[in-house]
Structures are given as C-alpha cells and as structure tokens.
Amino acid sequence: LKQEETNTNIIKEKNDDIIQSINYALRIQKAILPTLDYVKKHLPNSFILYKPKDIVAGDFYWIEVKEGAILFAAADCTGHGVPGAMVSVVCNNGLNRAVREYNLIEPGEILNKTRQIVIEEFEKSEDDVKDGMDIALCLLKGDKLMYAGAHNPLWIIRKGARVIEEVKADKQPIGKFSSLQPYTLHSIQLYEGDTIYVFTDGYVDQFGGEKGKKFKAKAFRELLLSIQDKNMEEQQTIIDAVFENWKGNL
User: What Rg, from alpha-carbon coordinates, does the chain have?
Assistant: First the structure.
C-alpha cells in the first residue's frame, strides 16, 4: 500500500508539472491570437467562436490590417493539443512574414509565400516533417472581398437567401504536397445584408447526438440559414449552444 501511495504521488507530481507547462504554453499561444477588442475594432459586426479541444490548440484565428484593407483567417494546423499548437506558431509566423516582411496583400500570394516559409522551416529538421495547415484567408475592403483557401472554404449567405453560396478552397494544404500549385484567388462582390463565414472542420467533425456521429456540413448549413435574422452576438450564442448540446459528454 505504501509503494502504491508513493507511485500515485509521483504520477500526480508529474501530471501537475505537465499541466503547469501546458498552461504556460497557453499564455504563449494567447499572445499570438488577436484580442477580441482588436477584432471588434476592425470587424465590428462579427463574432469568433473558439473552443479548443485541449488546453492549447492547433486551430487559430488571425487578423491583419494593411493598406486600408482587413485580412482575416481561420486556420487549422495538423495535430491537436501541444503538437498542434507548436505547428500553429510556425504557421502564424509564416502568415505574418508574408504580409509584414514581403509586403503581400493578395490572399493567394500570401498563401503561396506562407507555404514556402512553412516548408523551409520544417525542412531544417533532420526528420521528414509533413505538418502544415488548412486555412480560409479573406481580404475585405469596402464591399469587395477576396478569398483564397487551402481545404477550408468560404460560405456566403446573401440577404434573404435560402441557400449558402460556397467558394471552394484548393485541395492542397499549406505544407508539403505532391503537386504544388498556386492558390486560386476569388473576388466577390458583397451587398448590404450579406453574411460571410470562415471556419475550420472542428464544428462539423464533432461527435455527438443520440448515435455519437459527426455533426456534418449539411446540419451546419441548415443551422446557419436558420439564424440569418439574428445579430452576430445572438448567432454566436445559438451556434455555441447547439454545439454543446450536440457534443454532450463526448
């Protein structure tokens, strides 16, 4: 019994050390995320739903203001928890360098340069690192929207519409890939009352419900269409509540 108690204490100490270390990593990850005040300053009619599965996450959101335009993105890096968070720091840095160091503003060019930076960073390793990210990247200036994506699409709900207009992403990640092609740039005219959404696969891939299955894109589309008469704060509350109810204890 004494030996068992000793082993339990050792495990508890190690667990406490790991949790403390991860919590400090969270402070670092929070430092690279834009504050909600900053987001609201530049995108006042918006919301962010950010629900990491673990303490730290492979998903992140990003915003940069340049030349009177607002760049913003939802990104999903390979892995969960600590590995995903470490990759997110590399990928976030790649985006920042593409815009600040290389002075790029067009979303397609930003993704091309970010991919180059990420690949070069991981190629320094002796191991074959194939990590990277999926991303939906937008540039908003007035009523003009530009978008480029790696796996993550852009959804638009036009005022009064009963369907979602999807702008598809390129099927290649930001990272190593068998056939590297330039990312496609899409230009979209927006009108008053239109709503745009960028997101990772975390919501649609959440297991839950009576049968413990994924939420899926079809249900997500129906949910967003059903709340178009709500303001952004109400939409965030509803989307969050539906997610939690679906997830249950899973």
Answer: 20
Output the pLDDT for position 225.
97
What does pTM read for this prediction? 0.91
User: Across residues 160-165, what is the average pLDDT?
Assistant: 94
Q: For residue 132, with 0-12 CB atoms within 10 Å meaning exposed, 13-18 middle and 19 or more buried, which class applies? A: buried
Reported as a single tens digit per residue, the pLDDT across 170-206 is 999 999 988 899 999 999 999 999 999 999 999 999 9
| Alpha carbon distance 19, 195 (integer Å) | 39
CB 213 within 8 A of CB 153: no
Angle at 166 between CA 161 and CA 171, to 5 degrees: 175
Indicate the SS3 state at residue 79: coil
Contact between 219 and 30 under an 8 Å Cβ cutoff? The reply is no
Q: How far apart are CA 111 and CA 103, in angstroms?
A: 13
